[in-house]
Write a structure and sequence with these properties.
The complex is a heterodimer of chains A (433) and B (328). Chain A has 433 residues and is α+β, with helices and mostly antiparallel strands. Chain A folds into 2 domains: 102 residues, Immunoglobulins (Immunoglobulin-like); 289 residues, ABC transporter involved in vitamin B12 uptake, BtuC (Orthogonal Bundle), CATH 1.10.3470. Chain A is 55% helix and 12% strand. Chain A contains 12 helices and 13 strands. In chain A, a hairpin with a 4-residue loop joins strand 4 and strand 5. The radius of gyration of chain A is 25 Å and the shape is elongated. The N terminus of chain A is likely disordered. By secondary structure, chain B is mainly alpha-helical. Chain B has a single domain, classed as Orthogonal Bundle (ABC transporter involved in vitamin B12 uptake, BtuC), CATH 1.10.3470. Chain B has 14 helices and 4 strands. A two-stranded antiparallel sheet of chain B has the order 1-4. A two-stranded antiparallel sheet of chain B has the order 2-3. The chains are: A alpha+beta (433), B mainly alpha (328).
Amino acid sequence: MRRAVIAFTAFLGGLIFLLASGTPAAWAEDESLRGTLQYQGRPVDGVKISVTSEDGQPIGEATTAADGTWEIPVPGPGTYQVTIDQSTLPPDLELRLKDRATLTLEVSEGQQRTALFALVQKGQAGDTGGGGRQAAAEPSMWEQAAQLAFEGLNLGLIIALAAMGLSLIFGTTGLTNFAHGELLTLGALIAYFFNGTVGLHLIPAAIIAVILGGALGYAQDRFFWGKLRKRGTSLIAMMIISIGMALFLRNLFLFLFGGEGAPYADYNAQQGIQIGPVSATPKNLWAMAIEIIVLVIVALALLKTRTGKAARAVADNPALAASSGINVDRVIRIIWTVGGAVAALAGIMLGLSQNLNYQMGFHLLLLIFAGVTLGGLGTAFGALVGSLVVGLFIQVSTLWVPTEMKNVGALLVLILVMLFRPQGILGRRERIG
Amino acid sequence: MDWNTILVTTVEAAVGWETVVYALAAIGINIQFGYAGLLNFGQAAFLGVAAYGMAVTVATFHLPFWLGIVIGLVGTVLLALLLGIPTLRLRADYLAIATIAAAEIIRLIFRSVTFADVFGGSDGRQGFAGEFFAMNPYPRGEYGIGPFGFNERVMWVLTVGWILVGLALVLVYMLMKSPWGRVLKAIREDEDAVRSLGKNVFAYKMQALVLGGLIGCLGGFIFALSQASVQPDLFGTELTFYAYTIVILGGAARVFSPLVGAMIFWVLLVFVGNTLSEMVGAGLIPFMDANQVGPVRFMLVGLGLMLLLIFRPQGIFGDKREIALDAR
């Protein structure tokens, strides 16, 4: 029986670990304090943690294991103080909140109470606390605004790359693709595979990833979504199918890549250069240049080429486009191909400004939706404008709202746009049912 | 391979707290999506608001447990109204995006450092379940039949949970036989036709959203109590999507399908997870390590959801003509 309880407890632990990084208590007979020390999903081992009773009597000590876990049994229910020895932390990490090196926790009967210590990269402590912006020389409001606007533009361009594909796919097929974020992650991880595992330089790795992203976009439409359209699968069903696909792909990435974040092998430690009020790394500038070039090329292709015009015609009214001799299926396939390639590029660019992880695209998905909706669902240029606005809004809003809440603002805007101008900035009224 | 452990944990999963929590969440979604055709992708927020409403009342403000329950329920109703008044007029896919965005907003607020004094940041809240377990009628010990069993705390959570599931199912059964339920189903089939009969479609949709949210929020209470803690990331979008998988697996617009769906979902999940863990432990699957078992299980969930909707959108018990899968 005891083994069954242990197995069940272990299962619960695993489940909770998957659903979240928290580790609540399970039911066992003995009280203890425990936890898992990790930084961005990476376990941190060899850190000393000690427990004392309320009046300072030492109870026990533990060192975190290779998987970051630690557990200290306590004699019974009561209030205990858990202290992390900050000198034993790895040199590049520190506590997010320095004054929380000692936690006072209450352990109830039979409880295995979890104590959490949040770690951050050195130098970032307190940054999310709201009051952490007091650097030695406080930059002026305008310098901050310029810097944030620059970062917002960077984010907005990445969102725009992804949003154009999403919006065109929606416009031509009516599919609200919840798996679009995974296309970004896919591109980033393919590039990581060729860069980190195979050992290519990042630039050829990125080119391969973009080509593969396009090929997979093509294959997805050729062998999956196209078939479903032919079967007459309804749009809501397709939307839920895309959720299933997103779940599948996200966990596949977790399976292959693991839960921890990792950077690319190249362009890691670049010195920032100062341009006016803005400081940026060269890789950021290059990334933005590439993003702008790609966006301009896609936009020109939509405006000038026959296929581009056909794509806009299909997005406008598929039936009418078909009756005027446009091969709708071919157009949709091209959109999926380009959309997949551009999404892969967006993922790689995102991977340049943050660590890669298996959820990176998923975390961006709602912001992509926000950009698309703001610009007008189904329009290509609306998505572009909307995404830039969303990106700028998110970063600049951190002048007033805490950094951790910046996405809340963007999502609120998303909801408000749906209420008051559901057709978006550039959309037309008849598009919404 | 320890088949005994696998068998015991699998059977226990069929009645365990996850099944209760997800059954309640899915019964709520069944009212909204199955009967009324509303794509509420924010069900996790309803569970979260209820769980936090209770936890914060007791743990932060040191008020009585029952007041916490009341505040959780009131919070859920308020959330439904707040979400419903603007969004219920939108078409289906807009409603889906708006509700999922709202759920994320709520999760981000729960885990923010700014409000950590109230909600406890990413650590969440603990120490609110004492009064609930003080009401536990089971004396200390193990309860069960043969190798299957739970201790007195789990038994108490499960007893309350299964009573709530039973009540929710009876309520849904009676409501859906009533004129109210027929109007709801008619709205799913053709909103304009119902409007032309003089029914206030918006009010009916709102009632369905509130009711579904309230039933889901009971799941939030059970979730919080069974863990004796709440954490913001437990109420992420995955919870909503698993609940949708459960509803579709059982068959939308059928009274018992969320319950059957939840049992099958958790039994399969636990069985596959434990079997794989044991096989990995015994070295039968050389290319996997123990950490990779979890992702495989949820890959199967995603795959299952896709295959269900492609090949059998009506699930086990449903009727294909009754599934609200046409965009409006």
